[in-house]
Amino acid sequence: MDDARWVTALTRGARVTTSKSRNKAGAGLKIERVWTTEGVHPYDEVTWERRDVVMTNWRDGSINFEQRGVEFPEAWSVNAANIVTTKYFRGAVGTPQREWSLKQLIDRVVETYRTAGEEYGYFASPADAEVFAHELTWMLLHQVFSFNSPVWFNVGTPSPQQVSACFILAVDDSMDSILDWYKEEGRIFQGGSGAGVNLSRIRSSKELLSSGGTASGPVSFMRGADASAGTIKSGGATRRAAKMVILDVDHPDIEEFVATKAREEDKIRALRDAGFDMDLGGADIVSVQYQNANNSVRVSDEFMTAVENNGGFDLRGRLDGQTIETIDAKKLFRTISQAAWECADPGLQYDDTINDWHTCPETGRITASNPCSEYLHLDNSSCNLASLNLMKFLRADGGFEVEKFVKSVEFVITAMDISICFADFPTEKIGETTRAYRQLGIGYANLGALLMATGLPYDSAQGREVSAAITSLMTGTAYRRSAELAGIVGAYDGYARNAEAHKRVMRKHAAANDEIKPTGTVATAIQREATKQWTLGNKTGDRFGWRNSQASVLAPTGTIGLMMDCDTTGVEPDLALVKFKKLVGGGSMQIVNQTVPRALRSLGYPEEQVEAIVEHIADHGHVVDAPGLKPEHYPVFDCAMGERSIAPMGHVRMMAAVQPFISGAISKTVNMPEQATVEDVEKIYFEGWKLGLKALAIYRDNCKVGQPLSAAKPNKAVATTETPAAEVEKVVEKVVEYRPVRKRLPKKRPSQTVSFSVGGAEGYLTASSYPDDGLGEVFLKMSKQGSTLAGVMDAFSVAISIGLQYGVPLETYVSKFTNMRFEPAGMTDDPDVRMAASVMDYIFRRLALDFLPYERRAELGIFTAKERAAQLRAEAEAEASGADLTAMAASAPVEAPEPKTGPVAQPAQELADAAAVKPAPSVGSSTELLEAVIGKAADAPLCFTCGTKMRPAGSCYVCEGCGSTSGCS
């Protein structure tokens, strides 16, 4: 029997003997319907459709995956269906055993949970079990929540029933333990998950071995683990191995540990400058060490106080705890911040804060975390996650569905706890600890979208109040249900020895909830219910104990966030106001986030202004100078990146607002601008400690060389072509010497005249076309003949007309002159262009509507009234049914006006040749779209599966194209 099968069999045996039901005198949960209707199956409430899922590498067109005829609800977006089909459907593609419907996937998981729940005594009757299954099915079907990826991978399949995504290992100061670490970590990587470990028990390189020699130290053993992780990744995994390495700040090798990745970054720069391929995934990046792990320093209150007071700090030996060296605490803190400034590592974990909120200190201290830092608990343990989609609880009037949220948390926590009863684990030690302490990690996604949709800035007191209240309600309800489960099937095995500590932490959570002082009606209602949940839960827990030692974390929600069609992940704000969306039937388009119009309506803007502002955002990617938008409302639309990005301390303050209501921690990276200083990093790390965070990491733009920049790709492609230098010179010479030829209009040509009024100023626009239907001449008449304005308009008309006849594309003029702001401006008498920022803005919008094809206008964000009406209808339907706005808008029966653009004065062949030498930048994801808008490359890796540039998700990255992540499920 091989190791994997041996572990599975062994842990299954442990499950039977340690996790059998302890149902109290036949009691069980009575389940009430919340989302479902009695007598109607959830599947019968939605409209289903068949789709073809064909995933290609957008860079070279190669097909990565193909499955045709899959079945999904109409309301599910293309992205969500693609990700579920490629990631979660089980069975070999092309065989009858392959899953092909979302119904099969949900049934596979939900039926397993229901069966286990009945077997282990969770339900009062079979009827309650059926209602529970229907409620879970409805919530999954309508994207109200999602389990973490391992559940979808494994539950209900012949594979080991692994349900956990987060693992913590332990390493002692012995060679056997170190080798076990390599083996256990590799097994977890092989399954597509990640693990964290604290190496502080390993003696330092400044201490002696029993043989009299000097110890290697933990940093040297990190090399072997890093190489192992890289090998497993390159052996066929579709994402990099995810791991976290932690060292205590009082370890004698702490300075060497801090410098590891910064020193490697210097090596990357030197090799890059020497011509080696040092992009992430490049041929030569494997020569660099420590790149497969996130590094964190575990700092104590003693150390941070010494930093604050400019004091000394002792580094202690691992064998006897004696002081080996006393260092300047502030200098070490500076070294940590300098390294983070240079390469984003190490992050900080605040040890005393973490252990002050620990429910099980009698069992052992919390020494480590999972790779993304949200799971913090005992060594050799694991946590399964699930996340709620907060936008599903937002009412049309801006209120929050408090009661449905409470009931949904009950369902999800119950299901998550049931999963531990039947779950398998990668090692025996992890299985024993997890079954004894039953750690859960309920969380949420779409917080940033929720705040924007309700008109609240992410970085505001009101936004933090709502966020804190929701988080408190979620965790309070989760622990209350956990206490109720303890009364039915028993408290967790380790509860008796940790009862007083667990109760103390529950009181700390409740006290923090009392400190929320909401000012808005929504936050007040949520916080009031949270207070009830904490009070009831602690009373129930005092009587029965709790079923779970941990209840909540805030995970990145990368892949499952895309599965739920979330605009934002975890606790993050929106990445940007424009998104890259795939369409049914292939293709893609740029859209403004669907939360933006909702936010504008929440703020009281009329529909005409909403349309004008959305058009501005589509053109510019931000709200600055949007027509009619009040400057005091700009912060509502601030994002993680772009023209108006949220300040680093805004991210830290949001983390501090929700941290007291999370059992674990928060997966989030604080983004800092490239011009940030080391002092800025120090301030962020120090404030994180002061504000009571458990873990914190920063990322400064462009601090990593090994991150591929999309702007560099075309240049590299040009540089590596086989074209001789002389031929390149000829091409350049052709471009320089080329002179365009004017294509004059015939004496008799078709034309049209439009009268217009902009802000009360009236005028006439006459546009003449070539016989083959391409715009070639424009005349503008305003004011009296002979006036200065009339002369300027005549001269402008001649200039534009000559440019058109020499081959300047109309869309070039449209992109330059639309949104130009000057008086007169305001309302117009044109039903297709209700608001104009200036006369020029109106004229070129009108010309675009009359002479550009629909596809080109859509890219420019210019639509007729009929087209906008169709989009609004699609949006209303999307809000009502949870459908994806883009897919519905694309499929809406919009009749685009017949374009009047034909072969307008085509550029000469030499110009086409020059364009072939320098291809236009292509876009394959929201990150690349944002790069195109702001004109700046973003530090994000390319997806190993489909080649698309990924976008941030917590402290990791997720691919919008195929759902792959850089380490978090």
UniProtKB/TrEMBL annotation:
Boundaries of every TSCPD domain copy: 746-849
Xref: InterPro entries: RdRp_reductase_class-2, RNR_2_N, RNR_lg_C, RNR_NrdJ/NrdZ, TSCPD_dom
Start and end residues of each stretch annotated as Disordered: 892-917
Bias kind Low complexity: ranges: 905-916
Domain of life according to the entry: Bacteria
UniProt catalytic activity: a 2'-deoxyribonucleoside 5'-diphosphate + [thioredoxin]-disulfide + H2O = a ribonucleoside 5'-diphosphate + [thioredoxin]-dithiol
Class in the EC hierarchy, top level: oxidoreductase
EC number(s) from the headed UniProt entry: 1.17.4.1
Protein name: Vitamin B12-dependent ribonucleotide reductase
Native source species: Micromonospora auratinigra
Lineage start: Bacteria, Bacillati, Actinomycetota, Actinomycetes, Micromonosporales
